[in-house]
Inverse folding.
């Protein structure tokens, strides 16, 4: 009988989450490089180059691919013949492994989980509890799948119950454009079909653990209806022209996965979950011989891709930038930012809103007049780092605060990830503000532009506190100009037409 020791199990969980924080799966890198080579959109190609360069940097430096080091998701298949040498429960052991992984001193991972979600939303400080799915199966091993699922992509999850005669393809093609770019394409799309509501969503999540192999499927051809649908959706989703980071381009999804399960005759439950550019997962088994042995990839697995500043990129000093200069920027313009910026996410914006509503002054150091704010929750630094990986968070969560920030604080510009909604765009247009976009999935690369960091306000908010960064040559793209024109609308529209012409 196989005996699994508590220490081996906890160590395997901890090392697994550390491993996936800085190593992309090879199949994802290969698929992204394939997309990069065929991409004709300059903006999309630039974004993919940043993601590929960032990925290699993280593998070399063993630092997180993305500042959002994700919710810890664990799938367990426990053999019925397994015996445990443990004092803790399986759930307690998983959470201890997560706790050790996220607090590892050599590679601190950002703690993003908050308890009392309808109330205080207090950070648990160690990213526990994990999301655990357990099955008891035949056998004498414990099969383990780990994933770190970022909030930006998880927030775009969708569920519906279709009429059994309805078209799954039609629903997906209607729904994907509503996801926006907050899930950081190009990535994968996991679709679960059948069972009940919770089963369909779990199927969708677990399907994202499967290999990226759509190119192989295209070569050999489909062998069942689900594979036919995968191929059709892959082609038709990419024909939407959404592209990398939603800026318009030829590749939006690198693969589409479908997992199904028998369902009620009157039902067709469908769950859909996207996986972002920070695709992070691993599978291993414990057989009683000790902790899992995780083999690092070879650096030769990464393609020889460099990210270079294009000739038309504009250098901008944020400490001296003028309104006339800002007014000249157009959607799609690429900029290199230098100077000082403040940071702030959801919680900080809520604090500012509360202070303004009460007529109370801003905390010392929080003067937003003619300043730019960066929507970021960085990873804590290690060693001699100024700051850990510090990529942008999804900007639409700050949309409801945009009128207040531009109208009442003197703020002129915002830096974040993905598109802005109608309310934010209207405020930008009204106040002649500007919105710039950094690449999601290139957090370590972005952090290299941050030369100093100091705490300014709301330190108790942890990664959501307000900091002041001094940056040098931080790459961004103009996403919404002062007239409210959005690159996330014009870019995909342009490439949808171009792709249609190519297909003809």
């Amino acid at each position: 009988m196989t005996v699994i020791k508590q220490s081996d199990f906890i160590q395997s969980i901890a090392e697994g989450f550390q491993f996936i924080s800085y190593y992309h799966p090879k199949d994802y890198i290969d698929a992204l490089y394939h997309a990069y080579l065929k991409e004709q959109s300059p903006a999309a190609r630039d974004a993919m180059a940043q993601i590929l360069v960032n990925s290699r940097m993280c593998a070399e430096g063993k630092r997180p691919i993305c500042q959002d080091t994700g919710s810890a998701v664990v799938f367990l298949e426990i053999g019925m013949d397994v015996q445990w040498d443990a004092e803790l429960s399986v759930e307690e052991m998983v959470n201890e492994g997560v706790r050790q992984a996220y607090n590892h001193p050599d590679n601190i991972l950002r703690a993003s989980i908050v308890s009392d979600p309808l109330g205080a939303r207090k950070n648990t400080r160690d990213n526990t509890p994990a999301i655990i799915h357990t099955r008891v199966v035949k056998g004498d091993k414990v099969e383990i799948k780990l994933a770190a699922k970022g909030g930006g992509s998880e927030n775009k999850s969708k569920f519906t119950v279709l009429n059994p005669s309805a078209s799954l393809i039609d629903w997906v093609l209607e729904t994907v454009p509503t996801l926006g770019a907050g899930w950081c394409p190009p990535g994968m799309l996991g679709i679960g079909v059948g069972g009940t509501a919770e089963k369909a969503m779990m199927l969708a999540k677990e399907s994202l653990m499967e290999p990226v192999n759509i190119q192989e499927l295209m070569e050999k051809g489909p062998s069942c209806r689900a594979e036919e649908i995968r191929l059709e959706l892959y082609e038709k989703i990419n024909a939407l022209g959404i592209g990398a980071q939603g800026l318009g381009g030829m590749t939006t999804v690198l693969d589409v996965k479908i997992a199904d399960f028998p369902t009620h005759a009157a039902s067709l439950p469908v769950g859909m979950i996207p996986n972002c550019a920070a695709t992070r997962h691993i599978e291993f088994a414990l057989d009683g011989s000790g902790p899992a042995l995780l083999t690092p990839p070879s650096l030769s697995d990464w393609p020889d891709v460099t990210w270079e500043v294009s000739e038309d990129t504009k250098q901008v000093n944020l400490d001296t930038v003028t309104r006339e200069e800002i007014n000249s920027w157009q959607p799609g313009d690429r900029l290199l930012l230098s100077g000082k910026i403040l940071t702030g996410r959801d919680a900080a914006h809520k604090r500012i809103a509360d202070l303004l509503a009460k007529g109370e002054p801003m905390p010392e150091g929080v003067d937003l007049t003619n300043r730019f704010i960066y929507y970021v929750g960085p990873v804590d630094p290690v060693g001699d780092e100024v700051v850990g990986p510090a990529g942008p968070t999804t900007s639409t969560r700050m949309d409801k605060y945009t009128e207040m920030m531009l109208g009442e604080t003197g703020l002129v510009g915002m830096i974040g990830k993905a598109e802005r909604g109608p309310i934010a765009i209207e405020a930008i247009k009204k106040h002649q503000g500007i919105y710039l976009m950094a690449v999601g999935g290139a957090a370590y690369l972005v952090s290299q532009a941050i030369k100093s960091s100091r705490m300014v306000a709301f330190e108790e908010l942890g990664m959501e506190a307000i900091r002041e960064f001094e940056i040098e040559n931080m790459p961004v793209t103009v996403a919404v100009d002062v007239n409210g024109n959005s690159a996330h609308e014009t870019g995909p529209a342009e490439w949808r037409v171009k792709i249609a012409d190519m297909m003809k």
